[in-house]
Write a structure and sequence with these properties.
Blueprint: E1 5-9, E2 13-17, E3 22-27, E4 36-40, E5 58-66, E6 76-82, E7 98-105, E8 121-128, H1 132-135, H2 141-147, H3 151-164, E9 168-171, E10 180-186, E11 191-195, E12 198-203, E13 212-218, E14 220-224, E15 230-234, E16 241-252
Length: 260
C-alpha cells in the first residue's frame, strides 16, 4: 500500500495496515463542505495523464466492504481506473472521461455512467468518451441536448449516444456491508467484471491509453444529464461512512480472452 498516495480532505481519514494489506477509508459527519478519503497512484504522474501507470491488459482484484448498505450511503465511492477528468491536485486540467471501475453514486447524483433508468446505485462499468464514435457527436451536441428534453425522443436517442460514449454498466445487487471479492479484467477490446468469482458484466468497449488507479469514498454529487443539466455539490453526512479493502492486486500483461 505504500506506493499509493493518501488523500484526506476535511475529516477524511485513511488507515492502512501494511501487515494485513488492508486499508480503511473513512469520512466523518459533515454538514457542509467537501470531505474525501482516497488512495491513488496519481503522484506517479508528475507530468500529467501521459504518465499514468495502467493500460489495457491489466487485472485489478480486491476484497471490499462498506460500513452501510447502499440505501444508506451518501455521496460517491468506488475503485478502479480512470483519467481524473474533472481535475486533481496533481492533474489539474479537465479531460474527456475514460474509466473502467466499480462505482457508487447516491441521490441526487445523476450521471451518464449508468445505463439503467435510476441513474444512481452501485455499478460495474466503463465509459470511453474519447473514441471516434463519441467525438462525432460534438458538432450535434446543442441539438442533442435540446431534443433530449422531449422524453419520447430521449428514450430512443440517448441510449445510442451512451453506447457511442462507451457507457456500458450493470447494477450490482448485493449486501455491500459483507466482504466480497471484486475483480475487473481490462482487456484490449472488452472489459469483464467479476463478483465473488462470478462474471456479472462484460463491456464490449475498452478505454484506450493510460489511466490511474483510484479507491475513494466522499460526499459529493454531480448532475450531468443528457438534456444539458449540470450542477455539482456536496451531500450532508450525518453518520460516519467507511470503505474497507483488502488483498489489493493490480497485475499488468493479463491477456483477457474475448467471449466471442
Amino acid at each position: 500500500m505504500s506506493q499509493f498516495r493518501r488523500l484526506e480532505i476535511n475529516g477524511g481519514h485513511v488507515q492502512q495496515n501494511l501487515e494485513s494489506t488492508t486499508s480503511k477509508l473513512s469520512i466523518l459527519p459533515a454538514k457542509n463542505g467537501y470531505t474525501n478519503s482516497q488512495i491513488d497512484d496519481y503522484r506517479q504522474s508528475e507530468n500529467g495523464r501521459s504518465h499514468f501507470k495502467w493500460q489495457p491488459n491489466t487485472t485489478l482484484s480486491l476484497s471490499a466492504r462498506f460500513s452501510r448498505p447502499i440505501s444508506q450511503l451518501k455521496g460517491t465511492a468506488g475503485f478502479g481506473f480512470w483519467n481524473a477528468p474533472f481535475g486533481d491536485p496533481t492533474v489539474k486540467t479537465p479531460a474527456i472521461p475514460k474509466a473502467v471501475w466499480f462505482f457508487f453514486g447516491s441521490q441526487p447524483n445523476r450521471l451518464p455512467f449508468y445505463k439503467h433508468p435510476t441513474e444512481n446505485g452501485f455499478i460495474a462499468g466503463t465509459i470511453h468518451a474519447t473514441r471516434w464514435q463519441a467525438l462525432r457527436w460534438i458538432p450535434f451536441a446543442p441539438f442533442v441536448l435540446a431534443i433530449n428534453n422531449i422524453s419520447s425522443v430521449k428514450h430512443r436517442l440517448w441510449p445510442k449516444v451512451q453506447s457511442d460514449l462507451g457507457i456500458y454498466s450493470t447494477l450490482i445487487q448485493t449486501n455491500v456491508t459483507q466482504w466480497h471479492h471484486y475483480k475487473l479484467d481490462w482487456g484490449l477490446k472488452e472489459c469483464k467484471f467479476w463478483l465473488d468469482e462470478e462474471l456479472i458484466h462484460a463491456s464490449p468497449v475498452s478505454p484506450t491509453g493510460k489511466l490511474g488507479f483510484v479507491c475513494w469514498i466522499d460526499n459529493q454529487y454531480l448532475v450531468a444529464t443528457g438534456n444539458g443539466r449540470f450542477r455539482w455539490g456536496t451531500v450532508p453526512i450525518t453518520q460516519s461512512q467507511t470503505l474497507e479493502i483488502a488483498d489489493l492486486s493490480i497485475k499488468k500483461g493479463i491477456k483477457v480472452k474475448s467471449k466471442r
